[in-house]
Design a protein that fits this description.
The chain is α/β, with parallel strands linked by helices. The chain has a single domain, classed as Alpha-Beta Barrel (TIM Barrel), CATH 3.20.20.70. The chain is built from 7 helices and 9 strands. A 9-stranded mixed sheet has the order 3-1-2-4-5-6-7-8-9. Strand 6, helix 3 and strand 7 form a beta-alpha-beta unit. Helix 1 packs across helix 2. It is globular, with a radius of gyration of 17 Å.
Length: 215
């Protein structure tokens, strides 16, 4: 049972990306990540030993206060949050307030722990996600730097559509696909915009919080 977690930061802001963009949210950024994306904008989160441990109870209380101040949901992010077992964490949060919606943002390299109202999967071609996460996620968000990332995005959707026969067509139509250029990458922006224009199943996602100087 994981009662303490390494925490980089907690903050109440707006979700800046993807399906829930623009909504008030409370973020818990956990430390620790072995995926190692070269373009990562939170590399300070990679080494979990550099960040203090916080109790699950303390984090749950912080979450409750943020919800009382208007946060629509909790976002657990990282780092790679699923490097940690989050069963006890999610259970404690829900026990405090069953109405709190819990979201997670993950690369999908680990098995799922905890339980969530929304799963954002951001798969990486250099470290592909587990098939189980492709099956159950609500939102796919592929980061674009080069043409190889465009091809990877296509392959991810093809895998979900063609290679997961146990996944119902009804569920497939409800999955949300986003293509997001890496921050300040001109080639990434051009590729992502062109791809979204030509592929109506995909939607362009931008890091809007950075444009307005939010976390």
């Amino acid at each position: 049972m994981t009662k303490f977690l390494p925490v980089v930061e907690t903050f109440h802001s707006l979700q800046g990306e993807g399906f829930h963009c623009g909504k008030s949210a409370f973020f818990i950024r956990l430390a620790g990540c072995s995926v190692g994306c070269s373009w990562c904008d939170t590399k300070n989160s990679w080494d979990d030993k550099k960040h203090p441990l916080k109790s699950v109870e303390e984090l749950s209380i912080e979450t409750q206060k943020a919800v009382e101040n208007g946060a629509s949901f909790l976002v657990i992010t990282g780092g790679e949050p699923l490097h940690h077992n989050l069963n006890f964490f999610c259970k404690t949060i829900k026990n405090l307030n069953k109405s709190i919606a819990i979201h997670i943002e993950t690369s999908g390299v680990d098995k799922l722990s905890g339980f969530y109202d929304w799963i954002t999967l951001s798969p990486k071609r250099h470290h592909p996600p587990q098939t189980s996460l492709l099956r159950i996620c609500d939102e796919i968000k592929v980061i674009i730097n080069t043409e190889k990332d465009i091809e990877f995005a296509k392959s991810v959707k093809e895998t979900i559509s063609n290679e997961l026969p146990s996944y119902s067509k009804d569920k497939l139509t409800k999955k949300n696909y986003f293509i997001q250029p890496s921050w300040n990458n001109k080639l990434g922006y051009a590729l992502a915009i062109e791809f979204a224009q030509k592929n109506p199943d995909w939607c362009l996602s931008l890091q809007t919080h950075k444009y307005i100087n939010l976390k």
